[in-house]
């Protein structure tokens, strides 16, 4: 079954935790883009949703940090953070262990993927689900790309990982959707929180929407750090989504730089018939 | 409790005093520090302010990921 959906969104915890502090017009624009993506995700009738995330030391720490990992559990729980701080109630989210096992097995032909039968979702997964599957009823399979603790997987390998992910999903009988989630430029949780490099973001989105594999794979961490902050390392998830969408092009539904959310809030989707 | 960890005297003291600014300068990752700051009772703006004060008082971050942040921010 071909992939039924590939999208990408931001996940800053401020989007839900500090929702009331954003400029109302920007917030409304972001909300309506999330609503649109949520409807389109539902219309694609997925059996399972893979969230390609860049978690923040919730499950993987510096004592054992996989470059790539996939969840393999019957269910997950989140948020791991304080509910009030994040503005999202803790709950159980259904998984799909059988599909996870099949995808991990297939991916191991190409990538030394770690897996985990225990996984607590942090804001990186919960914020996207809050908007995209607000009933939290669609089975989710989390994927993590280490974007927090360098050394990190190179961006050209994140693209390649996405290609393999897309291929094994396409060869699977279930209807699979993918949503990648990460920042573009941002300096989250530092004194520079709120700084957003819009020029850099728009240049990235130009390359990304055109699915320019060479340009996306060329991003180098020292340059990314200087221009886009440590939060910019999370472009790996967007790049993996581009790999999964192969030659298809994307459309950006929303790019709203919202300082109190600490990121240029992005909602986007690949047109899977454009390749 | 802190004696059981491999911490310098300065790190121990910063932790015991809940000195968020100094902990930031000493190199604690913000993804962890922001939760610790909330745990100590600091709201978001106070957390950002504490880090900026830390940088103003102790100089730029000494270790970890944030050695290049300019501390000026936007909010
Ligand atoms: Fe993040």
Compute the number of structural domains of chain A.
1
Helix content of chain A: 25-40%
Radius of gyration over C-alpha positions of chain A, nearest whole angstrom: 17 Å
> What fold name goes in the CATH topology slot of chain A?
Protocatechuate 4,5-dioxygenase, Chain B
| Poorly predicted tracts of residues of chain A | none
Relevant CATH superfamily of chain A: LigB-like
With helices defined by DSSP (H or I, 4 residues minimum), what is the helix count of chain A? 10
Query: What would the average pLDDT of chain B be, to the nearest integer?
Result: 89
Per the principal axes of the C-alpha atoms, what is the gross shape of chain B?
globular
Order of strands in the sheet with the most strands of chain A? 6-3-7-2-8-1-10-9
Helix-strand category of chain A:
alpha/beta
Order of helices and strands of chain B: HHHH
Descriptive account of the structure:
The complex is a heterodimer of chains A (275) and B (75). With 275 residues, chain A is of the alpha/beta class. Chain A has helices at 14-17, 24-43, 83-86, 97-107, 123-132, 155-170, 198-209, 213-217, 221-228, 235-244, and strands at residues 5-9, 48-53, 68-71, 75-78, 91-94, 114-116, 140-145, 176-181, 249-258, 263-271. Chain A has one domain: Protocatechuate 4,5-dioxygenase, Chain B (3-Layer(aba) Sandwich). In chain A, the strands form two sheets. In chain A, strands 6-3-7-2-8-1-10-9 form an eight-stranded mixed β-sheet, sandwiched between helices. In chain A, strands 4-5 form a two-stranded antiparallel ribbon. Chain A is globular and about 45 Å long. With 75 residues, chain B is mainly α. Chain B has one domain. Chain B contains four helices and no strands. The longest helix of chain B is centred in the last third of the chain and has 15 residues, at 44-58. Chain B is globular, with a radius of gyration of 12 Å. The model of chain B has no long low-confidence stretch (mean pLDDT 89). The chains are: A alpha/beta (275), B mainly alpha (75). At the A-B interface, loops of A face α3 and α4 of B. The structure holds fe (ii) ion. Fe (ii) ion is lined by residues 11, 54, 56, 124, 183, 234 of chain A. Residues 11, 54, 56, 124, 183, 234 of chain A line the site of fe (ii) ion (FE2).
